[in-house]
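[job 4471] stage=fold_predict status=RUNNING
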Amino acid sequence: MFNNKKILVVIPARSGSKGIKNKNIKKINGKHLIYYTINYAQKSKVVDKIIVSTDSKKYAKISNRYGVETPFLRSKHISRDTTKDFPVIIDALRKTEKFFKLKFDYVIILRPTSPKREKMLIEKGIKILDKNNKADSVRAVTINKYHPFRYWRMQSNGFMKSFIKTKEEPYNIPRQKLPLAFFQSGDIEIVKRKTLLNGSVTGKKVLPLIIKRSFDLDTIDDIKNFKKKTWINLWNGKIC
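[job 4471] inference complete, writing structure tokens
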């Protein structure tokens, strides 16, 4: 609890990943991938409940083994590749509140594919959101190394065109004059209950939680490197 606000952590972990089969429960350094996110949430003193939203009994059993609850299984119709975040998170909020007979003020989304996070992101993010009554949500972002003003897309005629339509020749703007750009990471998202009830997982007024680095496991090579602790070394500045 923070300032009398109840806080729910939702760890979304469906079983049907096509890129890497059963990615969320891959063994990495002796632990299932999902363990690292569960353990991170468990270290926070402001969190009231942690639940894993999954469509798999196997995933639920593994999550229970690590000390978190799975009071329901996610329906198959919101466990597809094309399913967006909102139906998953609002489903988790409603079912968790009904099961525990509690009302949560903030919902934190922690994705298993970001196993290495900076310390205290939960506490930092909650403080940012709690201070701003007008804000709908907070999400982790990093300063983008590759600026969107330099991005191009291919047209059907074979020529390239800038992704940016609101600026004339944005790709020719000097680097020193480029506006600061951020890229969203999977480390953490925090959303107010009322934002979810209004039909969005972010809302229109989103505050940044700026982090220095982010590692998302999206490919089999990412997992292999994490197993070899290459990413841990990168995180600690041992590899340039």
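[job 4471] summary: The chain has a mean pLDDT of 91.
[job 4471] exit 0
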